Structure formats: C-alpha cells, structure tokens
Amino acid sequence: MKKLLITIDGPAGAGKTTVSRALAQRLGYRYIDTGALYRGVALAVKTKGMNPQNDADLKQLCNELELGFVVNEDGLRLMSNGQDISDPIRTPEITMLASSVSARPVVRQYLLDLQRNMASKKAAVFEGRDMGTVVFPEADLKYFLDASPRKRAQRRFDELKSKSTQTLDEVERDIEQRDQNDSTREVAPLKPARDAIVIDSTDLTVEQVIKVMMSYIE
Ligand code: DC
Prior knowledge:
- This protein is an alpha/beta fold.
- Helix content is 49%, strand content 17%.
- It has helices at 16-27, 34-48, 55-64, 92-101, 105-118, 131-135, 149-160, 168-184, 206-217; strands at 5-9, 30-33, 67-72, 75-80, 83-84, 124-128, 141-146, 197-200.
- The radius of gyration is 17 Å and the shape is globular.
C-alpha cells in the first residue's frame, strides 16, 4: 500500500494521543506527538527562568535547542539536547506554559521546520493542533478529533490522577483556558482544515474511532 502522511488535530483531551498511537501501530507507521515538542520548548524556558513573551530570547533558545524523538525500551521518548525529558514535560505547569509559548511565532517557525523534516519519509501519523491546516496542508488524510469539554476533562483527569492533585473541576478549567488560548491565537489557531474528516469521540471508544479512520484509509 502507498505510504501515507496522516494528520490528527483537535483540542486537549479529545483522545488524539491514544488514537494516534493506536492508528500508527496498526499501520506500522511512525507516531509523532508534536505537542511534546511545544512542551519541550516550554520546559527549556522554565529551566532557564526566561520570560516566555520575550521573542529575542525565545529565538536564541530555539537556535540552541535540539529536540528529537527516540524509541527505546520505555517506548517513544523525547530528547532535549541529549537529555530524556519525556516525564518532566507532563506537569500541569508545563502544560500551561506550552500553551503560551505555542502562541509565539518564533517558536512555531522553529518547530515548523523540525516537523517537516520529520515527515520526509511519510508513513507517519502526526498529532497536533495545526498539522492539517499549516504544517502539512498536502497531507494524504486529515482527521479532526473532538469531544465535549466535560468528557475531555474527565479523560485528562483519569490520565493525570496518579501524577497530580488537581480536581476534575480544576482540570476542566485548565482545559477551557487552553481551548481559549489555542483557538484564539493569531498564528495557526486550532481549527479543522477545510478538507479534514471531523470525528466526535464523545460517545465512541478508541476502537470505534480507529474503525472510522481505517474505513477512510482503506
Ligand atoms: O497536545 P498537547 O497537550 O501535548 O499540546 C501542548 C500545547 O502545545 C497545547 O496547548 C497547544 C500546543 N500545540 C500547538 O500549538 N500546536 C501543535 N501542533 C501541538 C501542540
């Protein structure tokens, strides 16, 4: 079968990560979590104690930052200048900081090039917010995965339970705040591409979502 470039965009908690991983595995494709890259930039901003609104400093930081994925015995890991940062990028603080650095054009430009380089061989599932609209407008198949805000908060809450002390209401507030940030920013706001297949996963299991996706691929 022809090797495809597949994009999956959507808001936080819509189930993108689980579905993208499962789809990539089903197809024998690489899975690229682009949100992790924004989190990687956010972690570097925090580590350096930088102001996330200072574009000159952000540019300098991006120039010195080497982000990349490796697969090892722990699965898919994100490396930043040789260091495994897969776990520290998942805290609520980095989650919010990633949302604010992702609104800065210098950061988006740096990651645009990086993401396109990662797609050179196709046979990949790219998960993010602007994969179908900005990064890969020529993708072979574009999906936009959505779900109700409450359902998304519940999923995030279940996922974070062991790692965070946030309540369900706090998780829902953070999700609403991030939706607002991600969909109203000037550069590459979160929205479905005109030719995206929109799937509402509120009442669907992962397997059901994959089935819908596979029906288009086949
Ligand atoms: O998918 P995630 O929660 O790991 O993403 C973290 C943040 O990064 C999210 O608030 C929006 C931003 N992001 C983005 O702007 N564009 C992408 N392609 C992926 C993520």
